[in-house]
Amino acid sequence: MAMKVEKVLGMATGDGENSYAANSRTPMKAIRENMPLLQKAVEQVYTSLSPASVMVIADLGCSSGPNALLIVAEVLGMISDCNQKTNEKRDMELQFFLNDLPSNDFNLVFQSLDQFHNVTRKEEGNEAAAAPYFIVGVPGSFYTRLFPKQSVHLFHSSYSLHWLSKVPEELSSGNYLNEGNIHIGKTTPPLVANVFREQFQIDFELFLQLRSKELMTGGRMLLTFLGRKSEEMLMHGEIGIMWELLSESLQSLVLKGRVEKEKLDSFNLPLYAPSMEEVKVVINRIGLFHIEHMGPVAFSWDPQDDDTDDDHEVLDPANSGTNVSKSIRSVLEPLIAGHFGEDILDELFVVYASVVAKYLEKKNAKCPSVVVFLKKA
Ligand SMILES: C[S@@+](CC[C@H](N)C(=O)[O-])C[C@H]1O[C@@H](n2cnc3c(N)ncnc32)[C@H](O)[C@@H]1O
């Protein structure tokens, strides 16, 4: 039986050096870049509601760390702007739901709420505050129903939907082998690449159907996830190379006798970075949403590298290699530790940092993503 993703996946907890909280700069850049779309979504929902309503916003795959509350802070700011623009006395209240898998470090989020409220709560003298708001954590997979029918106005999700519900059965059962790759690499057989794609199609369709039930009519959804520019399956874009280099690093531990070859052969990442066309096809096939906007965003692999020029040189490949390795470790640590054991982690990510550094010496690389803004039909 294929292992469901909630049994194995989890970002590194806490706020230490290797935690997700300390290594989530790339998603933060995407959230900031997509602010105009979020603003549009918030304004559209705000103006469609009567002044005394409760506006319900849910963030899916919120994780822990600064990004989990960044969305709440931004929406509060946008509501405050809307209030000022309309110049009308509104008694709107806001309900935020923060969703992630049960293994998520919700405690870290909850513990930071006091400080967050101190800055943002609508209290006398805090003119900038938007409206009374309430934050609730919702543990569970977004591949299941999470909310009552027609109860949410706006769904947001950033860097979460490329995670599949499971590794495709054909791979987890050992019927298909992936030639030492942990995702879609150059030597991945086309049949294997295809089962990843099919799993994405099944999961994304299910996700859209579930959210369509939970959204109010006219509700909005803003989704950002890893995606690829190229339609070519085997060249899974630059994001594929990132995983290929991790496969290479694991293979080098196999050669040193630190990892068993069978362990590597039975490990595959439960994720898929769809092309824009693949995303569009699923949305249009089920016909439950209008696409208001769809486009690519891309950032350098190194989360600390803010140069947006596509061809810029990597100034310090060794340093960038370390940064990339840290950010990938914060996302994959529990998954890798669960399969290979904790004791390979330090060595694996030192090797990975140097393999990535070597790659970046020749060429800069980007992490492409897809942004989709949808309205419930
Ligand atoms: C890379 S983090 C992104 C966190 C945050 N949204 C951000 O932009 O920084 C991806 C999150 O998605 C969550 N996730 C993956 N699959 C999920 C699922 N099926 N249901 C709910 N959350 C999921 C993971 O647990 C993880 O916390």
From TrEMBL:
Superkingdom:
Eukaryota
| InterPro entries documented for this protein | MeTrfase_7, MeTrfase_capping, SAM-dependent_MTases_sf
A Pfam family per the record = Methyltransf_7
On whether Metal-binding is a keyword of this UniProt record, the answer is: yes
Which GO BP terms, alphabetically? methylation
Entry keywords, A to Z: Magnesium, Metal-binding
Q: Name one GO molecular function term.
A: metal ion binding
What's the protein name?
A: Uncharacterized protein
